[in-house]
Amino acid sequence: MAFICSATWIAKPGEEETVRSALEQLSPASREEPGNIYYQAYQSPEEPNIFRIFEVYADEDAFKAHGTYPHFEKWALGQAIPALETRQRDFYETLDF
User: Do 10 and 47 touch, CB atoms closer than 8 A?
Assistant: First the structure.
């Protein structure tokens, strides 16, 4: 069963470009991780401070490993997350039918 993370990031006022720039680096690097099936970031055209990230991993261990890679530490923990007002993550598992 695949492990899914649906994240919503809301940037602090004036920090939209900081978050966008970090995601521009983080996204392609995350797609190269072992166990990553899909990683896509989105930005709301109506509310440019709202970003969503849809992530699919082979399993929960692959997702947990995602948070340990240097690119995550640099771009997410070091740049994007400090620029956020809100960070919400929801987790799911695929259904096998």
Answer: no
Cα separation, 16 vs 83, whole angstroms:
8
Residue 51 tokens, joined: 């970003």
- Residues 20-53: tens digit of each pLDDT: 999 999 999 999 999 999 999 999 999 999 999 9
CB-CB contact of 13 with 91 (8 Å): no
- The pTM score is 0.93
How far is the C-alpha of 74 from the C-alpha of 25, rounded, in Å? Answer: 10
Contacts 24+ apart (CB under 8 A), 44-50: 48/16, 49/10, 49/11, 49/12, 49/13, 49/15, 49/16, 49/85, 50/8, 50/9, 50/10, 50/11
Q: What is the pLDDT of residue 79?
A: 97
pLDDT at 97 over 90: no
Distance CA 39, CA 36 (A): 7
